[in-house]
Amino acid sequence: MSDLRDRLPPDDYICARLRRIEVEVQVGLHPWELHPEKPTRLWVEVELYALNPPRRPAGLYEVIDYDRVRNYVRAWERKAHTPLLETLAEELVEFGFEDERVDAVRVSLLKPDIFNETHGAGVELFRRRHTRGVETAAAGKKPAAQKGRSAKKGK
Asked: Which of 4, 60, 73, 149 has the fewest CB atoms within 10 Å, i.e. the most exposed one?
């Protein structure tokens, strides 16, 4: 039993998750990826983690709104060509941290049709808010519906 307890996360958390958002984007470095008339199909997965969530949320202002993340990813279809998947992944992580309740973000981007001999190729990023100055970058972008949390934490 203690072995199981050792594997449990140290803190309570909630994870808002989006699985396999399919989007057609202008991304890549291969010659066949540089034609705007033939966008690359991309599968996107996002997990937004909040530590110590409320036990019984009273409304949308107390939970992570994954609709806004879905809409952000869908808007990539209108985005100019991006050479690297890593750029899109980092931008998505930064967008996730615009919600001050988000303590960590996992992003996975996969090109399912890139090579004939694979099921896909892509990248995955996991970032905690305290790393790489992300908290500073996101601090100035607090949506109005999310202003109540900082008072609860004593900030």
From this structure: 4
Print the domain residue range for 34.
Answer: 2-145
Q: What is the DSSP letter of 37?
A: T
Average pLDDT per consecutive 10 residues, the chain (155 residues; last block may be shorter) = 75 92 94 89 96 79 88 96 96 96 96 91 95 48 42 37
Q: pTM, whole model, 2 decimals?
A: 0.78
For residues 26 and 79, the answer to whether their CB atoms sit within 8 Å is: yes
The pairs formed by 35-42 with CB atoms below 8 angstroms and a separation of 24 or more are: 36/81, 39/77, 40/111, 40/113, 40/114, 41/111, 41/112, 41/113, 42/76, 42/85, 42/109, 42/110, 42/111
Contact 34, 81 (CB under 8 A): yes
How many domains is the chain built from? 1
